[in-house]
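pinned: reference chain
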Amino acid sequence: MIDTINDFLWTYVLVAVLLGAGLWFTIRTRGVQFTEFGEMLRLLVRSGRKYDKQSDRHLPKGKTISSFQAFAVSLASRVGTGNIAGVAIAIAMGGPGAVFWMWVVAIIGSSNAFIESTLAQLFKVRGDHSYRGGPAYYISKGIGSRGYAVTFAILITITFGLAFNSVQANTIALALENTFGTSTLVTAVCLTALSLTIIFGGIQRIARFNEWLVPVMALFYIMLALYVVATRISMLPHILKLIIDNAFGLEQAMGGSIGMAMIMGVKRGLFSNEAGEGSTPNAAATAAVSHPVKQGLMQTLGVYVDTMVVCTATAFIILCSGLYDSGLTGIVLTEAALSCEIGSFAKYFLTTAVTMFAFSSIIANYYYGETNLQFISHSRILVVGFRITVGTIVFLGSLAALDLVWALADITMALMTLCNIIAILILGRYAISSLDDYRRQRHRGLDPQYKSSTISSIENKTECW
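pinned: its structure tokens
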């Protein structure tokens, strides 16, 4: 039943909706993901040095989350099993052509990421310890539908807090068992204890944890991948030809594998980069910035880092090894491929990397669930209950079957993505107006500052501006 629902959603609905919305926003923003790439890099460097000028005036000192910290939290959710195990699954099931469709989802879908994160900043609210926001908040304030907003909040709480965390826990358990022979029960107990320790510390602890862990681990993994690319650079033309041929080749079209490549590329690409899914806006909203567009651009850059850099690195390693049609899949395929390139050391490094990536994703995913749960109700008992439930799911996910946890995650991801895409298509004009204002100020040589009166039609709905 789960597979039947997944096939319908991903074959007939999600591909058209995601790419259609991405193309629409690419046109309406005049290619923001291309034209503002230099500005994204400038903002990244600037955000790593200091808080934004006059951006933390709404919260007590020490309670704000910097633009870079919010970027790191969202990157922690993005960079995880999707980049290592997910890419391997896509290639094993959809062939090398799936990589091409992952690129398409990233390039076109990054405009969705810009719109949703800018909207999250526009409609964010003041929380007890930081700003809060995301699709539930901009649906409620922008569209004015509490029921619609609650529906999304429930879906993302289930998807990230429960389904996705079971996937992350499952990948950690499989990797440790395959490499070190660690019992999945031992992994389940330790992982649950560590997760609960951090998530009971709140968003500041989550932000601090991900601020240093994700960049360091991603850098090490990318350096290793670049080493493989450098040593096998002569294979690069062959790998690119293999990807393109499998994405569009006549033989593949006759055999029906192009459709599978597209579906797997879109499905696993979305799981990894989350563009348009409605998840990263929850992290984007926490940032203290002087203009909503700043964080929108930062989150757009995150899509490129996730897919065009980390996912592509994994794909290159797998395709260079020639093991993509060996029958292996998931983290086991990636480990085997990397071992072919750099020796047995690879599996130990990769197991450590995927454990760190997946664990940071568990922590970030939990926050997405909590912020939406607090949108539904401010009950402290409900939040504590959710934290305990997340711990339980992490424990059970470590012991569950691989196919089941991925299939459940795909269904809930598809439903929440549909809810979010509809919302940003309705509200996208406000993000586009903000972008126009940002560009005008930058053209005059100013550091853009947003005022509530900038978009008069929502002036009384933007609490923090």
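why pinned: Confidence is low (pLDDT under 50) at residues 252-256. Residues 55 and 288 are 5 Å apart (CA to CA).
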